[in-house]
Amino acid sequence: MSQLSDGRLTALAGAAVFKRGLDYRRQGRVRLLKQTDSDLEAEVSGTEPYRLQLQRQGDRLSGWCACPADGFCKHLVAAALTWRDGDAVPQAAGPGDDLLKLLRAQQAETLARWLHEIALEDPQVGKRLRLLVAKDDVGEFGKSLADMLKVSGFLDWRRSNEYAKRLAMPLQLLAERLDDDPLQCFSLCGATLERLLKIYSRSDDSGGALRDRIHQFADLHRRAAAAACAGLDAKAFARNLLRWQKMDEWGFFAAASYWQALGEDGRDCYAALVEAEFAKLPASRGGRGTEAWLKEFGPVHRMEELALLRRDFDSLLRVLTRDLSSGHAYVRLVEVSREFGRERDALQWAERGVKAHPDWPSLRSLLAEELLRAGLNEEAVAVLWRDFQRHPMIEAWQRLKNATGAEWPAYRQRALDHVQSKERAVTDGLKDASPRLNLLLADGDIAGARVLVTSTVARPALLHDLASRLEPDHPVEAASLLRRIVDAELPAASEARSYARQVELIAAVVRLVPGPDVRAWVGELKLRYRARRKLLELLAARGL
């Protein structure tokens, strides 16, 4: 079982998640429900019981869990370890086992009365019970499911999280239908997702729990579509997919996820619908308002996705050239041309994009890449030099460095001179050399940075970066830079958080140069800022 080795599971889940899953395994939280050599169904007791599935195919291991977590969660890790180790680890009593024993000892009539009373007090309990009772009756199950999904008003972040947690049971029950009747699972998941999209549009899901839960329903829906594709009405499926996409502002119903399940007839029907929708759009004149852009975004995006799925380069050009009023369209045209192996087209679109939108981020770098690909090195360097002149940032500096090769030393000095020419005096006649210092630090030129800061000023964050690099071999210089930061920032500091930062810097100076000059400097600070009680308290707490 190489797929279930500690190393493979750690790679899938991450070290921290693997450790939590291992703890769950050792605590005996896993209950195996069904298992074969290639498939496993289990239930893991976490904050609530979560149903999950694992599949092994060759060297691949995949899984699905009803919990809200993304990726390969701790419940899947725990189940995979149990699957691999069998009964090697004794099963400990899981959470709630004592209560379960007590309930099993009661009479059925007594339990029914208790459950009824609880359901009357809490309507959500009643809905869950009705859903469980109806799970084997498709008609009643659908009605109970619809009732359980109902929620009124706007969901703030707290209600949104609670609602997402409530959805664990219906998700689990729908997942149980996948193997027995994938067509029913597909139909019920589709209806559920329609309701959830409407609810999601009136929720504050800043915690992401509801989004993650909807993604789980969408994943189950896609798997059900794949399993039931032979029994689906392909054209109805295509029409429904487009209808769902029009409701979906968040990308739950990407056509690529359903492309194979649609089948040839379904794909043709879907394509015809999307092309007709796109054809109805008015000709774009550019400069559209936000409302018009939002109205057209869906049809344009669907047409672009369709063209990519069908590997139809001409249709992609038709979509992407519809509106060339921003540089983004040219960026996409270059990217798409590359993807289709149209190198000459990529170069032409990059040239046209730079001409039309000379200040658009990334267009110049794309043009330089295409020029280099075409062997036009001098032209590429010229483009990158102009790009650096416009935006003398680290990324532009690095691209110029990569392209110039043996000529880099000359271009490097030229670039530094250009940045220096833009520097302005800020205090005591000294110039702010922050951009130049930023480039030197990015280039690892600590010697040059040391010289530069002796006669210029720079942003505190850059001085702190340089001080960190100087500290091992040049502690006195590092302490001097930290003192400069404190002297610059402390006069304007006012909140506890900013005081705490200054105290940390002061403590670092004392640690680096624990001499009388530094002690005198600290004494001067305490005298100068004696009215700032919080600052003095923090200094005293650090023994300063």
Automatic annotation (TrEMBL):
PROSITE patterns: ZF_SWIM
Residue span(s) of domain SWIM-type: 50-84
Highest taxon, organism lineage: Bacteria
GO molecular function annotation: zinc ion binding
InterPro entries: DUF6880 (IPR049245), Znf_SWIM (IPR007527)
Keywords: Metal-binding, Zinc, Zinc-finger
UniProt protein name: SWIM-type domain-containing protein
Organism: Hydrocarboniphaga effusa AP103
